[in-house]
Structures are given as C-alpha cells and as structure tokens.
Amino acid sequence: MSQTREPGRRELNKADKQRRIHAAALELFSRHGYSTVTTQQVADRAEVGTGTLFRYAQSKGELLCMVANEEFRAMVETVPETGDAVEDLVVLCEPLLVALDRQPENIAAYHRETLFGEAGPHRAEAQRILGELRELIAAVLAGYAGDAVTPADMAGAAQTVFDVLYMTLVRCGVERSSASEGRRELEVHVRRVLYGVLTDRPEGGPTSDPGDGVDSTV
C-alpha cells in the first residue's frame, strides 16, 4: 500500500506565501476598495516582494479574481430546490447580489476583469465559475421543463437568464441598489423570461422559442 507523500519545505513555503497574499489582498480590497489598492501595498502586507507577488497573481485584476473566486466557487456547487423555477434561479444567483451590496466597487471590478481583463489563471477560473453558473441555470430550467428536456436543450434560455442576471448586476452597481432591491428586480426579469410578456398568443403562433426545446408553460 503506497503512502501519501508529505509536502516538502518548498511546497509548504509556496502555500504559505499564497495564503499570505490572498489574506492581504482580501483585507485591503475589503477595507479600501479595488481602485485605491496597489500591488505594492498587497506585497508589503503579505511580507513578500513584488516579484514574488506577480508569480502568484500577475496583475491587480488577477489578485481581485483570486480573492473573489474563493467566495463564488461555492455558488456553483449545489442546485437550489425550492419547488419554484423562478425562486431556484434567484437563489442560485443571489450570492452575486449580496456581494455587490457589500462591496459594489469590488464586484463591479471583478465582473469587468472577468470579461475584459488580461489573460491569467485566476481570470480563467472566474470565467469557469460563470460558465458553470450558466450550466446550472440550464439544469434548473430542464428540471421544470419535463423528462424529455435536457440541460443542453435549455442552453439558449439559460444564456438569456444569465444575460438578465448580468444586466441586473450592472444596474444595481450603477444605482447602488440594495441586495433586496436587486433580488426583486432579478425575480421580475427572470419571471418575464420564463413566462413571457404577452398572455395571449396569436392563434397558430409558436409556443416556444426556436431551439429552446421547451413548452411555453416552463
């Protein structure tokens, strides 16, 4: 039976430096906001050189992604089961709204860096988390659409819900809306996406969006 190899001194030192950098970035971003914090300040607080810092996060945007990813990773690990499609989707996305309420500047910067920032492993991880969020949205929709519908069938609808979430986050960030206000707004928009705007359809009109593979009663 093989024995588990204990981490060597070099690995332990690397883990310790990464832990200190993460803790320093989290503290400084939380206290002062993304725009005013410098990488030099993070390096000083972590008691490492800037060269060492950039080996773990090559830019300030990467530092922010590293910190925020830890908070949002848990969001995509479970699927809510409230018994209501709209509520499931709102609960799934709520951690983003709560974080935006607490730290609007940092979360707005996080989404900006995720979309437009320099390439790097922490940005790639942020994009992976958001990709998994889209997949979970599709899984929630498929769960309410009937046994014959798969998450892949709901990819288009999931993208629409995801886009609604992003625009809600943008508006809440600009308007400095509270998490409860953002939640209500998201619920209204998601309900509109799922159930439509017009209650009466023209006779013979389509009952579902092309490619969604789901009946209009979803």
Describe this structure in words.
Helix 4 (60-72) packs parallel to helix 7 (121-145), helix 5 (85-102) runs parallel beside helix 8 (155-175) and helix 7 packs across helix 8. This protein has helices at residues 9-32, 39-46, 50-56, 60-72, 85-102, 104-116, 121-145, 155-175, 179-195. The chain has two domains: 9-56, Arc Repressor Mutant, subunit A; 68-195, Tetracycline Repressor, domain 2 (Orthogonal Bundle). It is mainly alpha-helical and 218 residues long. The termini are far apart. It is 67% helix and 0% strand. The longest helix has 25 residues, at 121-145. It is built from nine helices and no strands. Residues 205-218 have low confidence and may be disordered.
Which SSEs are present, and which pair or pack?
Blueprint: H1 9-32, H2 39-46, H3 50-56, H4 60-72, H5 85-102, H6 104-116, H7 121-145, H8 155-175, H9 179-195
* Secondary structure tally: strands: 0
**How many separate helices?**
9
CATH T-level fold name of the largest domain: Tetracycline Repressor, domain 2
Percentage beta strand: under 5%
As residue ranges, the low-confidence spans are: 205-218
Query: CA-to-CA gap between the ends?
Result: 53 Å
Percentage of residues in helical conformation:
55-70%
